Prior knowledge:
There is one protein chain. By secondary structure, this protein is mainly alpha-helical. It folds into 2 domains: 7-36; 38-99, TrpR-like (Trp Operon Repressor, Chain A). It is built from 6 helices and no strands. The longest helix has 18 residues, at 38-55. The protein is globular and about 35 Å long. The two termini are 27 Å apart.
Amino acid sequence: MDFEPKFKSVLTDELFEAILLLENMDECYRFFNDICTIKEIQAFAQRLKVAKLLKENNTYHEIEAKTGASTATISRISRFLNYGGDGYTLIIDRLEEKK
Length: 99
């Protein structure tokens, strides 16, 4: 791993190993239904949508209108897109390839 997150631990390794074992959408829904609150799942989904819209060069105002995300959230995601671990870019690119 060439990126070392601050939150890396045995517990997070086990969590991510568990997520990597999910085989389909139904299993994802079942697992995340049990492990997260609805609000947490909605927040993850919103952040991914914000990241996609930022990569498409939408303005903060447009993103706020489309997602309901605050400008603080949009700004934080923009910072991660520019200076983070490239996780958003990695997954957005893979989602685009899948289309």
